[in-house]
Amino acid sequence: MGQRSQIYVIYKDKQNRDCISATYFQWNYGERMISRARYLMGWIKAKNNLCSNLHSDYLPYVANKIRYIASVNFDYKDVVIGQDLIEEWKDYKQGVPNANLNDYIFHADNNDGCLFIDARIPKQLKYAFTTYDYKDGVMGPEAYLKWDGTPQKIRDTKFTKRNINWITHNAKLMKKKELEAILRTTYHVS
Fold first, then answer.
1. Is the Cα torsion angle 131, 150, 23, 37 positive or negative in sign?
2. Which of 23, 76, 102, 169 has the least CB density, counted as fewest CB within 10 Å?
3. What phi-psi label fits residue 101: left (phi over 0), alpha (psi between -120 and 50 degrees) or beta?
4. Residue 48 has what pLDDT?
5. Taking the model in full, what pTM does it have?
């Protein structure tokens, strides 16, 4: 069964098109998701512009780097390699030509919620944690931990508190309408 979740990063390519990295994790939940959120956002912020030195033909390279950074849990010193939902959709689309990208990536198996990072303006990162069906709107890190059933003693660990503090001071929580727009956007994939 696992602790299934997804991490989505929305960014702009050199032609100013909306792109997305969509990663499925079999084992990512609670404070592990918070850890991945903190370090992935830190990496994105340090990059300033994910596509600044790349030709648009290299978009899969950007998505792969995002997925690789998200796969590392820097607090637990652990790696859980996520699956690329965009590549899975491309394979699926060969058999089902009318397959919609957003329907495919935003409805993957999930029982431990999602993380959305809007990195279209890297110096002004926005984020949202959500439930598996998005019905409860957006959540900050503490609300996500409570929703996911993370015990208080784990929520109170030094690194989890540090990660929550970093997230809330370095990124802005999305509004529900911003999340809804992300779910409707048509993304460029190569």
1. positive
2. 169
3. alpha
4. 65
5. 0.93
